[in-house]
Amino acid sequence: MNQNARATALRVLVSCRSNGAWADAALKAQLSRDGLSGPDAALCSRIVYGVMQNQILLDFYISAYCSQKPDHLQPPLLEILRIGAYQILFLDKIPDSAAVNTSVELAKLAKRGQASGLVNAVLRKLSQNKETLPPIPNRDQVQRLSIQYSHPKWLIKRMVNLLGEVETEQFLASDNRIAPITVQVNPLKITLEALTEELRQAGVEVRAHAWVPDCLELSGTGDLTALPAFREGKFLVQDPAARLVSLIADIKPGQTVLDVCAAPGGKSLSAAFAMEGQGSILSCDLHENKLKRIQESARRLGVDIIDTHAADGRVFHPEWEAAFDTVLVDAPCSGLGIIRKKPDTRYKKADDLFTLPVIQAAILDNAARYVRLGGTLVYSTCTILPEENEQVTQAFLAEHTDFILEPFEFPQPVGKTDGSLTLWPQRHDTDGFYICRMTRR
Q1: Which of the chain's ends, N or C, has fewer CB atoms near its CB within 10 Å?
Q2: Are residues 291 and 394 in the same domain?
Q3: Residue 116 domain boundaries
Q4: Binning pLDDT at 50, 70 and 90, where does residue 109 land?
């Protein structure tokens, strides 16, 4: 395997640690800068996400064979050790000797020549002892779960309070699994059956989603964006949980729809499919540059009923008052429901989340003014914390008596709801997600 993959992974991980960069954005940018594609890009991505996913566990094992504490090691030395340790412990197809030697070379390339001896010694000891690794301490259940699944203790305590210890462990384990690739068929261009056949002809393994309509789970895709069906706009890559938003909103052809926090655009595009290209959608986001992604996706998918507008969801626009049949509020949130796709999200600090419910409530209050009488308001997040979810909508409903919960029903494992739903990766095999549907009386 090419050393370029590991060097690029090192640059990404150092950027995340030193500059606070998010792994997905940093990885995409660095792959482009370094010109990596194919197997090299795949290995680089696997290392970056694997290290992020198992960071606390890797540091635990590194500390067993290193004279210095991991958090005392300066970048990029700790990142080099993590990259080597991840390959030794998790990547069966890479020989341990290659993992050790390439990590030593990384230390030399990073002008840490003196540290290359430490890297060599630590990783060789780890390799020699990987069948008899030190046991994870289990006197404290929170500490054990934190080390074993690489989640911060504050989050584990919150999950234990919500789910109990047994299901918390299931939740943490699901966060460390690879999420299936799910796509929604674009009915403006192709049927589900025809798309299934086309993808199978292209060598992709395809199966219908177990309970979310118009969705397929794919494997063996290689570079998804290189598939002709992707380039021709025959499907939208979207988690089933996000797909449910337009279903729960019961969006119909000919309606007027406002998507208040639209980027990157999946819910607006899914709404356009439901509308069969008839009606209008106004997709808003605070950041102008994010709206370009929605426009590009709409062109690829052949959707021409979406207009975009840069707007702060908390600022009232009088011209939109009571003007929309359906208003979607996918509020900015902690993102703790999508850890399996964005593994570094787990390392957020609890203090960072305190202001989110205030912002969420302000956006929801403002967006409600845009719903016509008899219209639908849908609030959603990609988190599983009640303070960002049902506590926000319950407070809203208490203050806005002209809105009521609107029940909805889906096949199992969802079933009947009172109008709100929390999806969990360990229960539903979707992103962790909250959706609440309200009607303006």
Answers
A1: C
A2: yes
A3: 3-128
A4: confident
**The tokens 């086309």 sit on which residue?**
198
Tokens (6 digits) for 400: 């806005």
Flag whether 29 is in a domain.
yes
What tokens does 156 get? 């584990």
Domain count, the chain: 4
Q: What are the b/e assignments for 376-405, b being 16+ CB within 10 Å?
A: bbbbbbbbbbbebbeebbeebbeebeebeb
Q: How many of the other CB atoms lie within 10 Å of CB of 22?
A: 14
Mean pLDDT throughout 271-294?
A: 95
Judge whether 145 and 152 are in contact, CB under 8 Å: no
Same domain? 424 vs 291: yes
The reply to whether 71 falls in a domain is yes
Mean pLDDT to the nearest integer, 57-62: 97
CA distance linking residue 375 with residue 370, whole number of Å: 9
Q: Assign residue 330 a region (left: φ > 0; alpha: ψ between -120 and 50; beta: otherwise).
A: beta
Distance CA 265, CA 249 (A): 16
pLDDT at 223: 83
- Residue 132 tokens read as 């008899």
Whose structure tokens read 């900015």?
332
Q: How far apart are CA 273 and CA 87, in angstroms?
A: 43
Same domain, 233 and 166: no
Is the omega angle on the peptide bond into residue 213 within 30 degrees of 0, that is, cis?
Answer: no
Structure tokens at 288: 């102008």
In the block, which residue shows the tokens 């030697």? 101
Query: What is the rounded CA–CA span in Å between residue 245 and residue 375?
Result: 15
173 and 149 in contact (C-beta within 8 Å)?
A: yes
- What is the number of alpha carbons within 13 Å of residue 434 lying toward its C-beta? 25
Burial of 181 (0-12, 13-18, 19+ CB in 10 A): middle
Q: Are 252 and 398 contained in the same domain?
A: yes
Residue 83: φ, ψ to 5°: -60, -45
What secondary structure letter does DSSP report for 176?
T
Please name which of 64, 47, 79, 67 lies closest in space to residue 118, comparing C-alpha atoms: 67
Cα–Cα–Cα angle for 28, 29, 34, rounded to 5 degrees: 100
Q: What pLDDT does 324 receive? A: 98
pTM across the whole model: 0.94
Q: Which helix (H) or strand (E) holds 41?
A: helix 38-53
Q: Where are the alpha helices (DSSP H) in 369-428?
A: 390-399, 425-428
Nearest to 242 by CA among 386, 431, 392: 431
Helix (H, G, I), strand (E, B) or coil at 298: helix
Q: Of 163, 131, 149, 138, whose CA–CA distance to 57 is shortest?
A: 149
- Residue 349 has a CB neighbour count (10 Å cut-off) of 9
